[in-house]
Amino acid sequence: MLSQLGGGESKKMKMKTTITTITALALASVLITSGFNLPAADAQTFPSVKKVVIAKIGSQGAIYESQPRTIAYTYVFEACAGNTAIRAPEIVVTSDSEVRSVKLASDLSPNACIVSATKIKAANPDSIDAKLFTKETVTKMINNAEKRLANIKMMLAEKNAALQQLVKQPTNSDNTVKLVKITDEIVELRNQLKEARGEYYRLLFLIHG
Q1: Strand extents, DSSP E, the chain
Q2: Which residues contact 85 (CB under 8 A, 6 or more apart)?
Q3: 150, 154, 156, 157 alpha-carbon torsion, rounded to 10°
Q4: pLDDT digit string, tens, across residues 157-169
Q5: Domain ranges across the chain
Q6: What are 80-130's pLDDT values in tens digits?
Q7: Which fold has domain 2-133?
Q8: What pLDDT does residue 15 have?
């Protein structure tokens, strides 16, 4: 009986760890895959992180493991500021297996760089990537997400109003075509709204935790 309970607790812990890892990867992907979603003018002066070296420090897992075998690596990177100083800089390092957050010990002066490192596990070392972000950066992303959310809501309200007017009109082939078109547009806008709302709340989580 005790062994069964212990097995149950072990499964719960593994499930919790898996969910936490997936959540962290999803949040980090907001930064890694979108290029911070900033306009080109911001990107020119935005801080950067580049790889210096990736060194293997661990061995592969047992060959009979069902999960992809991961290796521990030391990821050495150089973080550089843009044209303005960065207070309390933080680096988000991701791989195909793990997410690491590295808070740099000192602020970055304008156009200054600093070299640091972290340990991270990966099945494929080429999947290791890093981005530098600040609350100011994420705040800009949140503002953009808010604007997108508001625009989608406005367009959705307009389409719903148009649909309500159209259903009051006499039924004919032209109105039927319009009805189908507006209905399809509403479905698409609802999908966009769901996506935009998810992005918005993920960004809020990065700021407030």
Answers
A1: 48-56, 71-80, 90-94, 99-103, 113-122, 129-133
A2: 107, 108, 109, 110
A3: 130
A4: 999 999 999 988 8
A5: 2-133, 139-208
A6: 888 888 877 888 888 888 878 788 877 888 888 889 999 999 999 999 988
A7: Immunoglobulin-like (2.60.40)
A8: 46
